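Continuing the batch. This is chain 6 of the set; chains 1 through 5 are on the previous pages. Same settings as before, nothing changed between runs. Recording input and output for traceability.
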Amino acid sequence: MTHDIKPDYLFEVWSPDDVAECIDGVNATLYARLWSLVPLLPRMTSDDETPDCQFKRALSVVWHHLTPAEQVQLNALAAAHLANEDTLFNS
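Output for chain 6:
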């Protein structure tokens, strides 16, 4: 299933479980959905621990498994999260 909605750049780094646990506004349904994506990510070994290994387990890797509605919701949550971060750092 392919959608035209691109993931926010935050999801190029953060894993689905990071998003579920760390972004405000993730409801129970989306929380469970994000956790259900974790087993679909590549398994990492100590040999995989490189500076870019986090990108291999990013939400963007499994983005195509989300519905368009979930993708829109997640991008909105990322925008709100980043806006909040900007406010905290620029205060």
